[in-house]
Amino acid sequence: MTRLSGAVRGVVAVLVALLTVTAASTTARANADPVAPADFVALRTVDPTILQEMRYFTPHNFVGERIDGYRQPICILTRQAAEALHKAQTNLLSQGYTLKVYDCYRPQRAVNHFVRWAEDLNDEQLKGEFYPNVDKSRLFEDGYIAAKSGHSRGSTMDLTIVRLPATPTRPYVPGEPLVPCYAPQQQRLPDNSVDMGTGFDCFDTLAHTLDPRIQGQQRANRTLLKSTLENLGFVNLAEEWWHYTFKPEPYPDTYFDFPVSARSLAQRY
Predict the structure, then answer these.
(1) Phi-psi region of 143 (alpha: psi -120 to 50; beta: other; left: phi over 0)
(2) 66: Cβ contacts below 8 Å, ≥ 6 apart
(3) Tens digit of each residue's pLDDT (9 = 90 or more) over 79-98
(4) Terminus-to-terminus CA distance in the chain, angstroms?
């Protein structure tokens, strides 16, 4: 009887262990990050010459900290958008310029981070640079922050032009004195972009692509970016000179949430 009970106890122990492993495996699968569809690519695999300054991986953005979901400073796009961007880059290289991307695919968790930040009216640490003339309570009403972003569909990017040879951008130092994003370029915080009249992510009407107050070389720079991209199927968001979407989008109604990382691309295989 003792021998039988020991055997039974052994079987029970094995079953408990198996159930524990199965439960842990199920939990791990449930908690695993989503992965990118097969037609999403790292931009560098399509065109390694396009500069990348992924702002939301750094604290130099309107929130003032790395944004949720940005695990590596890489640009991820649908293959169609990346290949069209490569054609634009080829065009600009022949004129002595290069493209530089600030943001590409953006996971929904990052958008949620923006929303939480916008709802916290006491957090205005980067107001002096990114939205000096906008009351933070109006960010949703004025359209600067929304619960969904076209970036999460994978074919939208924020970008600019840099004259060659490209001078490296001085690293941003958290806590350094802030300068309004519409100040003269030589006074703004570091960016090796040509002068577009405002910095990236400037919450101001001066950032509207065709704002009539932007003239001379600044307007010519915006026009060069706009004409180069629109000739290849990109559509500009009129309120942001840096914001373009490749059309037709392969995922016009899907908002993805896989993290920005090489692992999100590698794990799908």
Answers:
(1) left
(2) 56, 57, 58, 59
(3) 999 999 999 999 999 999 99
(4) 53
Is 240 considered catalytic here?
Answer: yes
Place of tokens 């802030």: 178
pTM, whole model, 2 decimals?
0.88
**Does residue 34 surpass a pLDDT of 80?**
yes
Is residue 72 very low, low, confident or very high in pLDDT (cuts 50, 70, 90)? Answer: very high
Amino acid at 78: T
Q: How many residues does the chain have?
A: 269
Q: Rounded to an integer, what distance in angstroms lies between the CA atom of residue 74 and that of residue 220? A: 29
Helix extents (H) in the chain = 2-31, 43-46, 79-93, 108-119, 127-130, 216-230, 262-266
Q: Evaluate whether 50 touches 100 at the Cβ level (below 8 Å).
A: yes
Token pair for 154: 């994978």
- The closest of 157, 165, 169, 160 to 221, measured between CA atoms, is 160
182 Cβ partners below 8 Å, 6+ apart? 197, 198, 199, 202, 204, 206, 207
Catalytic residue among 65, 119, 129, 240: 240
Which value, to the nearest 10 degrees, does the dihedral of the CA atoms of residues 187, 190, 191, 194 take? Answer: 20
Quote the crossing angle between the two packed helices 79-93 and 216-230, to the nearest 10°: 130
Residue 3 has pLDDT above 80, yes or no: no
